From TrEMBL:
Protein name, per record: Trehalose 6-phosphate phosphatase
Cited CDD domains: HAD_TPP (cd01627)
Main enzyme class: hydrolase
Role: Removes the phosphate from trehalose 6-phosphate to produce free trehalose.
UniProt keyword Magnesium, yes or no: yes
EC number(s) per entry: 3.1.3.12
Length: 262
């Protein structure tokens, strides 16, 4: 079983490029890419996030040579619009909604049944959190993000307590965390790692295809942990230990690494 470790102790993918490129020349990897914090810089408002032209071009060129999937906490249509490529796969809502070329679509069936519960909890939380300035809601199909990047420091513990108390009333849902965001998700054994395993079967006929996954957040750890034949590459840090195999420092290094695959 994989062990997590201090990300600072992970080997740098950039410093080990020659070794990795050698490996990739004999094992063409499937490429899994997280969006926020990996392809697009973290910004104040979630609506404003986007890839720069260089990153767009790199991902486009990679998609001509590799099977690629973007795996995001964002809603499927949102992340698809932001990446803008038609011929690649996407997993949105933390893997609960998956889509790909030729009208391929796969929503998590259990999560589908929970849509009315999401409507209810969203309404309740909107009301209970209305007194806290700076709270931003982002409804995805199967998850609900509540952002607190713009909430003042002294209000943050109240923000978390309100959400915890409400979520406790809903055993079908659970609360996860991200970068200055709380994510309400279906309480189902499904996450980015499971979605990646599903996509590995979709993208390759091999039993255990060689894959790489780049991601920056705690939710990407589910994918790193599930990486069988392949490498997880952590972008920056998220404050906890990591199951990744390598690290890159930031988005600039993500670009540098991906360019080497072209
Ligand atoms: O899985 P990801 O593609 O990394 O998505 C994770 C969440 O990313 C977005 O929120 C984060 O980025 C925002 C824009 O930079 C930032 O303002 C926010 O504080 C971050 O948490 C997105 O809005 C969420 O829906 C995703 O779940």
């Amino acid at each position: 079983m994989k062990q997590s470790q201090d990300p600072k102790k992970l080997p740098s993918a950039i410093e080990n490029l020659e070794v990795l490129k050698k490996k990739f020349s004999t094992n063409k990897p499937l490429i899994f890419l997280d969006f926020d914090g990996t392809l697009a810089p973290i910004v104040e408002n979630h609506e404003d996030a986007g890839m720069d032209n260089e990153t767009k071009e790199i991902v486009k060129q990679l998609s001509e040579n590799y099977a690629i999937a973007v795996v995001s906490g964002r809603g499927l249509s949102d992340v698809r619009n932001k990446v803008g490529l038609q011929d690649i796969y996407y997993a949105g809502s933390h893997g609960f909604e998956i889509a790909g070329p030729n009208n391929f679509e796969k929503d998590n069936e259990e999560a589908q049944k929970m849509l009315p519960v999401f409507d209810e909890i969203e309404e309740k939380l909107q009301e209970k959190l209305s007194a806290i300035e700076g709270v931003r809601f982002e409804r995805k199909k199967f998850t609900l993000a509540i952002h607190y990047r713009q909430v003042s420091e002294e209000k943050i513990s109240e923000f978390h307590s309100i959400i915890e108390n409400v979520v406790e009333e809903y055993p079908k849902l659970h609360k996860g965390d991200g970068k200055k965001v709380v994510e309400i998700k279906p309480n189902i054994e499904w996450h980015k790692g499971k979605a990646v395993n599903f996509l590995r079967k979709e993208l390759s006929t091999a039993t255990n295809p060689f894959s790489i996954y780049l991601g920056d957040d705690t939710t990407d750890e589910d994918a790193f942990r599930e990486m069988g034949n392949g490498y997880g590459i952590l972008v920056g840090e998220h404050g906890n230990d990591s199951y990744a195999d390598y690290r890159v420092e930031n988005i600039t290094e993500v670009k540098r690494f991906l360019k080497e695959l072209l």
